[in-house]
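Now for one record.
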Amino acid sequence: MSNIQIKFPNGEKKTYSSGITPQEILNEFGGSLKKKTVAANYNDQLVDLNHSLNQDGSLLFVSYDSPEGIEVFWHSTAHIMAHAIKNLYPEAKFGFGPALDDRFFYDFDIDKSLSPENFEEIEKEMKNLIDQNNPFIRENLSQKEAVALFKKRDEPYKVEHIEELEDSSSIYREGDFVDLCSGPHLPS
């Protein structure tokens, strides 16, 4: 396996084996940096902590209290909410759930109106899922593979969107929940 050189914000450069992840590098640092980090900026691209680093580049750890870190947190929380909704309402069909500056949402389609009691039920299921601590796992799929996956999962809005894309798609798995998404996400 070849080596890559990583440059840190303080100008220090270190050599690592190609394929190392930001999480593995972060483990060298420990302390408060490790506790606060939710993602990484690798060559000016926001990536998951388990993203494989395969070329020389710059690496900056992204903490929860930064705008990018908060966006990663909200985005991951939107996926947890969608997972909770799917557990409670298996017939739900999902659109998209982006993070915004100070909140998150997820568009979905079900045949009933939700009440405040339903929101409490969703929140309870979200807490249950968080307690399970399932990792967010990214996979890259061809357009054909992604269409087949979401057809099998009866997600017509996802299929429609994938068919409009020209090339591959990335998905995230979290427990038994699967979503079309470019990420990044919290480790779990």
User: Anything to note?
Assistant: The chain is about 40% helix and 25% strand. The domain at 68-180 is CATH 3.30.980.10 (Threonyl-tRNA Synthetase; Chain A, domain 2). The chain has a mean pLDDT of 93. The two ends are 28 Å apart (CA to CA).
